[in-house]
Amino acid sequence: MAFFCTYGGSGAEGTFRTMKEILGMEPIETVAITEREIKEDTCDCKIEPFVRDVEEPFRKPSEPQ
Fold it and tell me: How far apart are CA 52 and CA 15, in angstroms?
């Protein structure tokens, strides 16, 4: 599992902690993107590495990264 959070308030850490407690396991990756980053279109630098890291365990050894 992986956690993706967008927010405009107090941050994502509490949300991630609650999600982890409910599910009873650690996520393989997390990313939090602020409302400002979305409005300014500056969140790709967070989204692309997140997707790459989440996909990594599912790639076949011969697939390019």
Answer: 23
